[in-house]
Amino acid sequence: MQSLEALTREASALASNEMPVTLAMTSAESEVSRIMQICNACRYCEGFCAVFPAMTRRLEFGRADAHFLANLCHNCSACLHACQYAPPHEFMVNVPQAMAQVRLQTYTDYAWPAGLGALYKRNGVTLALALAGGLALFLILAMLFKGATLFTPLAGNFYAVFPHNMLALMFGVVFLFSTFALGVGVRRFWRNEDPGAMSGAAIGEAAHDVLSLRYLGGGHGTGCNTSDDAFSLARRRFHHLTFYGFMLCFAATCVATLYHYFFGLEAPYALTSLPVVLGTLGGVGLLAGPVGLLWLNLKRHPLAGDAAQRPMDRGFIALLLLTSASGLALMLLRDTPLMGVLLAIHLGIVMALFLTLPYGKFAHGIYRSAALLKWSVEKRKPSGLLVED
């Protein structure tokens, strides 16, 4: 049986010699290939998450494999804390960090338009705040330009400040662009290593794993490893609050749209109405979740994940926090003279969030969902490594 060192040398040789020049592996992809060769020989972490059983169906790890496995990884760090070859061992096996670096490359490589892929590396707190502040200021100036008085009580009537059709057009265009851009990127990711036809069972399993955040339970279901090597489900719970808070806010917008166009019911809506209740619950979740995620991000073990991505992580968290905080403030103060200014600030923040969705941390959930679906399809097919008589 070959030693792990020999396997490592073979991985490097495969990465450097067998890939076409036009698809030469980057240093991050080569590092994933090297580490996966070692992990494939060891297999101690085989039951930890989807990455390791997917790994065992491969003997070599090219670009497509590296991108697929990197997006399967949920960065729970269980394998890092369990690995006998983790730093400071000379093999320097750090799966979470290597996978995180390739994930960033995935988003960049498959971004549409391609020239905007570099925004993933620059989308930090400063850019997020500058974009949100600039858009809010633009909307305030637009209010002044049309002769509005900034601090006039309007009984919660948002459309007295900005007409409904104008808001629908502005946000509709931005939302459709963001959806299309992410869709093109994920399609490129999928076609890079197409697992084949999907079955209902595969789709159902992937949907369950995505919505339950199954793989944020850590290797044994007790949670992710913290900086002091303890187990905690806090990361999964804060992700749930963030995701379902976002979805409740989106549902509130959809219900309000339904009220407006199909039932002729125009805002403002009563505090006990469905759009306001959904928006309030979503806003609370979208406030508590990101606060928790920011706290965990600040405390994260330096070996877990890629430090270069922290500005992007925190920029996205900052926009989520500002969106929820400004939305809740707008709801509470909508009958006061502050409503017009708060509305402009909130809309500017939401617009900034939508504009950065295809080029920020939000993309990780989309690509990870696609990778889980790929794995659900792949695992139902015979392994290409099976030896036939």
TrEMBL record:
Keyword Membrane in annotation: yes
Top-level lineage group: Bacteria
Taxonomic path: Bacteria, Pseudomonadati, Pseudomonadota, Betaproteobacteria, Burkholderiales
The name this protein goes by in its record: Tricarballylate utilization 4Fe-4S protein TcuB
Residue ranges crossing the lipid bilayer per the database entry: 125-145, 165-186, 241-262, 274-296, 316-333, 339-359
Keyword set, alphabetical order: Membrane, Transmembrane, Transmembrane helix
Encoding gene (name): tcuB
